[in-house]
Write a structure and sequence with these properties.
By secondary structure, the protein is mostly beta strands. The protein has helices at about 1-10, 115-120; strands at about 15, 20-25, 30-35, 40-45, 55, 65-70, 70-80, 85-90, 95.
Length: about 120
């Protein structure tokens, strides 16, 4: 029930240290946008057992990779400021894509808290 509620909400910007990003977690993957920050973020997403080979369509920056350690298998993503990725995991593949920016809404779906937009336009 909580997953359905979270999935129905538009993503909100979240601050993590000096970085601002949006994260949407789905049953089969995640969507992340690194809105701003001083450097790329090194992110890891734990993969389920049996996750298949990696495929990606990231045309720029550091390509995603699969890594393993004593805690399991991970999808490692270096996400530069301004970059957005969508990752989906199935038994057949781990697919990481950068959405076509021409298809993104101009607001990027980010909810801006009341009163903040007035300060941004000043």
């Amino acid at each position: 029930m909580l997953a359905n509620w979270l999935a129905a909400r538009a993503p909100s910007a979240v601050s993590v240290g000096a970085h601002t990003l949006t994260v949407e977690i789905w049953p089969n993957g995640l969507d992340i946008q690194h809105i701003s920050g001083p450097e790329p973020l090194d992110l890891r997403y734990r993969l389920p057992a049996g996750a298949a080979p990696l495929e990606h369509t990231i045309p720029y920056g550091t390509p995603p990779e699969l890594i393993a350690d004593d805690q399991g298998r991970w999808l490692r993503i270096a996400l530069a400021p301004g970059q957005q990725i969508n990752a989906r995991v199935t038994a057949e593949r781990v697919l990481v894509q950068a959405p076509d920016r021409r298809e993104e809404p101009t607001s990027n779906g980010i909810e801006v808290p009341a009163g903040v937009s007035d300060k941004l336009s000043s």
